[in-house]
Design goal:
- The complex is a heterodimer of chains A (112) and B (114).
- Chain A is mostly beta strands.
- Chain A contains no helices and twelve strands.
- In chain B, the strands form two sheets. In chain B, strands 2, 4, 5, 6, 9, 10 and 11 form a seven-stranded mixed beta sheet that branches. In chain B, strands 1-3-8-7 form a four-stranded antiparallel beta sheet, with no helix packed on it.
- With 114 residues, chain B is mainly β.
- Chain B has no helices and eleven strands.
- The chains are: A mainly beta (112), B mainly beta (114).
- At the A-B interface, strand 6 and strand 11 of A face strand 4, strand 5, strand 9 and strand 10 of B.
Amino acid sequence: AQSVAQPEDQVNVAEGNPLTVKCTYSVSGNPYLFWYVQYPNRGLQFLLKYITGDNLVKGSYGFEAEFNKSQTSFHLKKPSALVSDSALYFCAVRAGGNKLVFGAGTILRVKS
Amino acid sequence: NAGVMQNPRHLVRRRGQEARLRCSPMKGHSHVYWYRQLPEEGLKFMVYLQKENIIDESGMPKERFSAEFPKEGPSILRIQQVVRGDSAAYFCASLSGTASYEQYFGPGTRLTVT
């Protein structure tokens, strides 16, 4: 069965510093991987996806993610964090019928 | 192009009542997915529908829950005889077709059972 793990419940980073939110996956076959962000009392917003191609995927709001097949990881990164990036981040993998299997989520707190 | 619409945004029901949650997908999208987010948890898949068809309901509780996506109108998630454990945020997402991959989510309906 497809699954993802987000090993950190919370990540704290100072504004202007680089950030990384970790995600590892377990799939049978080629992984289709996604990152979504959720702001308080809002729905999920799509950030980026990896389907095939370059291992470094660029997405919205300056975020990018690095796909690493040997480590089965898909970490979310941003070179310089903003306070407004503070939110709940979900990694997800596509399962049968295009349904998504989500990780438990990681709270990102960016402090000024 | 309007995004995915869900209503109501907040719904309060007493135990034993029925809850009806509505989802209008993005224009041109014919695939709808429902997910549930329990407090302090991630999203869990419930059901996948196309127009007039339930494609995958493997995540739906066996009793009290049903879903439909009629030819005309929104998709409906119906919960009969609600219990406190049904309190959660329910999100729907839409997809234009199986060749697309990113799902677009609505703002969710927060159900509170008192």
